[in-house]
Design a protein that fits this description.
The protein is α+β, with helices and mostly antiparallel strands and 350 residues long. It is built from 13 helices and 10 strands. It folds into 3 domains: 75 residues, Winged helix-like DNA-binding domain superfamily/Winged helix DNA-binding domain (Arc Repressor Mutant, subunit A, Orthogonal Bundle), CATH 1.10.10.10; 162 residues, Beta-Lactamase (2-Layer Sandwich), CATH 3.30.450; 91 residues, 2-Layer Sandwich (Enolase-like, domain 1). Strand 5 and strand 6 form a beta hairpin.
Amino acid sequence: MDELTQRQQDILGYVVGEYIATAKAVGSDTICQSCGLGVSSATIRNELVALADQGFLSQPHTSAGRVPTAKGYRYFVERLMQRSELSLSEQTMIRHQFHQVSQDLDQWMRLAATVLAKMSQGASLIAAPQSHQTHFRHVELISISEATGLMILVLQDGSVHQQMMVYGNPVSQEQLSRVSNRLNAQFANLGTAQARAKALGEMGGEDEALVIEVSRRMVDVMYAYESQSNREIYRDGLVHILGQPEFEEIERARQVVRVLEQDSALEALFGRVQLANGVQIIIGSDDQTDDIRDCSLVLSGYGLPGEADGIVGVLGPMRMQYGRTVSAVRYVAGVMSDLLHRLYGEQMTG
C-alpha cells in the first residue's frame, strides 16, 4: 500500500473520522480549523489533491470537500485506527444477558445477533457453528403406544433430533428407560464413526434386539446431520443500515436486502476470508456488479478448532464506526467461543 507522509496520514485520518460521524464531505477549511497542523488552508488543499490522486479520497462535486474511498478506508483501518475495547459495563451486560438464557444454541444465536446489531448499529450476521464431527450427548426413548415410541437424540452442539420408532413387539416405558440409560452410558461422547463401530459390534445383554435397533437408528441420524452442508444464519439490525443516507437510493437499499436475505450470498462472503486469523474486514468491492460494493463487512470466527466453529459479523455502509464494530465483533465472538467450550469442552472432559 502507498506510503503517506505523517501529515497526509493526519489529514486522511481526520477526513475518515469526520465523514463517518457526519456523512458530509470534508473541506480544507474544516481541516485547517480542527486539526492543528500548523499549515495553511492552501497547503492542506494540496495534500487533499495528492491524496485524491493516489486514490484515498474522492470529490463528489467540484466545489465540495473530500470523502474517503474504499482504499482510504482500508488504509485507515490497517494503519491509523486505534484498537479499542467495549467498556467494562458493556462487557458485563453482554455476558449477563448470555448467562440469563439456557444452554440452548438457538437462543444463543438469536441473542448474539440482537446484541451485535445494537452495539454496532449495523446488520448483524451470526452463522451457527458447523460440527466437524458429530458427537453423541444424550438419548431419550418415550413410549407412545405398545408398539410405537419417540426417540429424542441430543448431540453435543445442542441440536435435538426426534424420530418415530415402530417396534416389532410390545415395549413398555420401563424397557425404553432401561435401554436409554444403557445407551447413554455406552455412547457417551462418541463421535459418529466410533458410535457406528459400537452399534455394529456385539451388544449382548438384556434388551439386545431393542438396543441394536435404537443404536443403529441413532447412528443414521448422526451421519445424516454430519453430512448437512447448510447451516442457519441469524440476522438482526437491517433497520440500522437502511436508515443511513447511503441507502436512501432504493436500488442500493434493495441490493443490501438481497444480500442479507440469501444464505448462499452470505456463505460466499464468509468464504472470502480466513477466519482463523481473528477479526477480518472487507471494505467495498472492485467488482461494480457486486451487491456489497458500497458496504463493509467485519467478520470473526468463533468456536472450538476441530470441533465446531461459526461466524460472527456485521454488515454496514463503508462509512461505519470501524473501531466500535471491530470491538463488538471481537468481544461477541469471544463470548460465543466460551459458550461453545462449555457446551463441548466440559462434556468431552466430563
